[in-house]
Amino acid sequence: MNFSCSDEQLAIAELAKQIMSDKATQERMTELEKSEGPRFDPDLWREVAKSGVLGIAVPEEFGGAGMGFFELSLIAEQVGRTTAPIPLIETAVMAALAIEKYGSEAQKQATLPPLTKGEIIMTAALVEEGADPEVPETRAIADGDGFKLSGCKICVPAGDLANLVLVPARTADDRLGIFLVDPTSSGCTVIALETTSDQPEAQIEFDGVEVGADALLGSFEQGAEILLFITERTNAALCSLALGVCEEALRLTADYTKGREQFGQAIATFQAVGQRAADAFIDTEAIRLTSWQAAWRLAQGLPAASQIATAKVWAAEAGHRVVHTATHLHGGMGVDKDYPLFRYFTYARQLGLTLGGPTSHLIKLGKMLAAGTA
Predict the structure, then answer these.
(1) Alpha helices in the chain (DSSP H)
(2) The CATH number of the domain covering residues in 224-371
(3) Which of 234, 167, 238, 169 is nearest to 197 (CA)?
(4) 261 pLDDT above the threshold of 90
(5) ∠ CA(145), CA(150), CA(151), 5° rounding?
(6) Which residue spans of the chain are classified as CATH 1.20.140.10?
(7) N or C: which end of the chain has fewer CB within 10 A?
(8) pLDDT digit string (tens) for 23-68?
């Protein structure tokens, strides 16, 4: 069985790697992190759009490359490898994929061509305090031909950057709908949140926000299906991000331990250091295998619930081990914020907990095993 990527897929990954490496430098990251406003690089965003990387999974009729989710996951890996300050996952995965599959022609025309040009940022507001992401408590009350949305979403990635937000909400008769909402609408309040990783997130409050019937994505009958579509692909993309984060943390560690000397020799030659580095390498390869499997099954239209849960457990638990090892082997350098490793440590921890930590995904796996569906 051939587990390698095609030449075309490798070329896409290499293009993304080159752009991210050239533009998302240590100096540029430091400059952005010390400036006012969210951690976002508009120049890099435009460059990613110009190269065609941003629209890689958008159909050709809307200006994209017409490729699939696996290619998108390879790009996400490079975003993680550089901790690039762009909302690629939020826009291209959390929002665009669902709009392309379930949206009306008008919704597609309004969002997908601007996406390929880097003229729009989108996201999905999936998290509510104390609620399961798949069972939202935000309400959509019928109002004439449209609806009024009321509720509060937290930890919305790129929420303070977005021009459009996908908002799951329930009607009075408990039907689930996904609504396309302009965050500048009357009654909508966006509050930027401070995160340990400096990744931009927001709390978005909806107080009778009016939306038309044309804001509904798909239909109410498809609501649960669309929400599952979004959460599955988001979780798989988070695993791809985690893979890139761990790859670079491991590379930084290898370079550091080869150059750091104690007792007249590089610490990389010490048995205990080598063993920990080897374990981190094995963990990183396990994240690669499980994340690729999940992404490939989604790209092929195959059931992937158990594979996504497995990948998320590895991304969270093994990712935690990798960045902890990297920090420990760096010694004091590992906690120096003028050295890039700290970004990978905080980002890995955030990725592991986003949309549920390892325990919640192990519970899902247990239920699937008990039901014989895993």
Answers:
(1) 7-23, 26-34, 42-51, 69-82, 88, 96-102, 105-116, 223-259, 271-299, 305-330, 341-353, 358-371
(2) 1.20.140.10
(3) 238
(4) no
(5) 150
(6) 224-371
(7) N
(8) 999 999 999 988 888 999 999 999 999 999 999 999 999 999 999 9
Residue type, 284: T
| CATH 1.10.540.10 residue spans of the chain | 7-121
For 128, other C-beta atoms within 10 Å of its C-beta total 18
Residue of 257, 256, 281 whose CA lies nearest to 270: 257
Q: Please tell me the distance from the alpha carbon of residue 302 to that of residue 288, in angstroms, as a whole number.
A: 19
Residue 106 burial by Cβ neighbours in a 10 Å radius (0-12, 13-18, 19+): exposed
CB 126 within 8 A of CB 93: no
Predicted confidence (pLDDT) per residue in 180-218, tens digit: 999 999 999 999 999 999 999 999 999 999 999 999 999
Task: Quote the CA–CA distance of 81 and 249 in Å, as a whole number.
Answer: 8
- 94: tokens are 């959390």
Judge whether 316 and 358 are in contact, CB under 8 Å. Answer: yes
C-alpha to C-alpha distance for 38 and 161, rounded to whole angstroms: 8
Fold of 7-121: Butyryl-Coa Dehydrogenase, subunit A; domain 1 (1.10.540)
Contact between 231 and 126 (Cβ < 8 Å): yes
Kindly indicate whether the domain formed by 124-221 is annotated with CATH number 2.40.110.10. Answer: yes
In angstroms, the CA 120 to CA 46 distance is 11
- Whole-number Å distance between alpha carbons of 317 and 358: 7
∠ CA 191-192-193, nearest 5°, is: 115
For residues 287 and 25, what is the distance between their CA atoms, to the nearest angstrom?
25
**Structure token digits, residue 365:** 């796996």
Q: Which of 272, 268, 242 lies closest to 255 in space, CA to CA?
A: 268
- Length reported for the chain: 374
